[in-house]
Amino acid sequence: MRDDKKQVNGSYGDIIGEDIARVEQYIRSNLVSKQKILESALKELVEAGGKRLRPALVLLSGKFGKYQAKKLIPMAAAIEILHTATLVHDDIIDEAKTRRGMPTVQTRWGKDIAVFTGDFLFTKAFLLLTSSTAFENLQRLSRVIKAICEGEVEQYQYRYDKNVTVRQYLKRIGRKTALLFALSCFIGAHESGCSRDAIRSLGKFGFNFGMAFQITDDLLDFTGDPAKTGKPVGRDFVQGVYTLPLIYTLNSPDFRDETAILLDKQGYEPADVDRIVELVHLSGGIDYSRRLASRYLKRAITCIKTLPPNPARTALEDLVKGLMDRNH
Amino acid sequence: MRDDKKQVNGSYGDIIGEDIARVEQYIRSNLVSKQKILESALKELVEAGGKRLRPALVLLSGKFGKYQAKKLIPMAAAIEILHTATLVHDDIIDEAKTRRGMPTVQTRWGKDIAVFTGDFLFTKAFLLLTSSTAFENLQRLSRVIKAICEGEVEQYQYRYDKNVTVRQYLKRIGRKTALLFALSCFIGAHESGCSRDAIRSLGKFGFNFGMAFQITDDLLDFTGDPAKTGKPVGRDFVQGVYTLPLIYTLNSPDFRDETAILLDKQGYEPADVDRIVELVHLSGGIDYSRRLASRYLKRAITCIKTLPPNPARTALEDLVKGLMDRNH
Fold this sequence. Notes:
The structure is a homodimer.
Chain A: H1 13-30, H2 36-48, H3 53-62, H4 69-94, E1 98-99, E2 102-103, H5 105-109, H6 111-132, H7 135-157, H8 166-191, H9 196-223, H10 226-229, H11 235-238, H12 244-250, H13 253-264, H14 270-283, H15 285-303, H16 311-326
Antiparallel strand pairs in A: 1-2
Helix pairs in contact in A: 1-3, 1-4, 2-6, 3-4, 3-8, 4-6, 4-8, 7-8, 8-9, 9-15, 12-14, 12-15, 13-14, 15-16
């Protein structure tokens, strides 16, 4: 599952804080409808917020070239709206009751409204992008959304599959999450006229950061405090979505059998969920996942090492450190 | 609800038949994915087909200007893909088991797949349109999709509402269906360099034809043969979607009470459904709806009366006649 809130402690306030606020304003002024229910759903979504991480990546990447706030803000807003669209649709699948601690659109209004709120957001995002970015970037974006859809379908396809491999998991989160992070950086850099090398480096940074971000998010299903994450421990695997820590456990000869038997039970007792979480800890699934996340974060840092050491690079490095800190 | 199959008997084969086949081919070659489930879902959707009415409207309207098949085919395909996206999402809401006589994506694969198949289709449609139409048309299209979403939300909002008015119904189907018909004509004419008057006339034709089309489709819920329509009689109102014939009945003093009591029952027996259908017939709801559809069809004809009498106009008139015949 995907969520942003309080996930990242990096501070990018000084360098792009004002422009993030303008992105926020831009999103707000674009998500309106005369249809009252839709309007309420949109308003709640905007207010539920999130860290606006993808917009931050667009803007910060833009700082490595000729930074034009006017050009980047609609684009950053569009990518965030697009991300919100996928979250709203995601929640239909997950039957999620809360997202970022707030009731989801589908819980409040029903899945009917959620489907069309998502479609509305998609449309809005596309229109904004159409008017703000180069055609080739639209094609890139379209490929990324295609990949997100494929990633989600794949996640569904492998639900309750105890033989899913680490490799399949990584491919899935690449599609589901990391590619949009990569594209955010790529588009910000591209539209600001960065060199080809810089664009590629920032894109790769985004991808690696996105991979670490998703692994860290998936870890919260086992290590998170429900009061903070807004979702119960074990929600992912109860719904059949087996993420990295559990996949690791299922691959550990000493832990596989007990874990598999528990997962196969019809209807989990709270004690079953607790025991599965415990087995994941005991098997080393948590440590393994943290190490892998760290590896991606280190790779992310390496990707931007050759870029000029400016405040934007420091801000990106701070994002990485913020995520690294969460993992220890 | 919306469906095309066998709804319209007009023949436009002679004048645009080959290009419709090329639209078909274009759709087929664009809806592919390496993800196997997605690929299967897409394939089935393409094969289930439909009359490709919206593409026909794009192409026929183009015939009133400088017709360029190369330019119009991607656009016509994109509009059809967009329409298919809304149908797939529509089916999630309706929990429809069949569409065009075939199992729906959600029946076959689950609503998870349906949500993302729809998103995939949306993305594809946008990308095709981005590369084939003027920016102003993209903005128009975006407004139409916004309206479709609002129309769907409205339909949901007024579910089980026995006080819904004819006016509200007409506004809803305008948003849900007629605007995309109007846009299909508009874009076809616009991109072919028709005069402003011709563009407007064709757009209005599309709108009126779309209104009649949806009313006729909604009539099938009361008059259709399940073997032909592929859906059980009364499915709309059983799901709380009250369409024109029933709205008329609920506004008839002699029939309102019995109808309202039946509609309020928890869980309908087959006999209840039959009786509601009977009441709709007895109250004159069917005749009224047929008359209203006819009125829209006549208006549609009037809209294109001032256009040059060419084979395309004849084909559009044939479409109208085809729908008119279904209503008698």
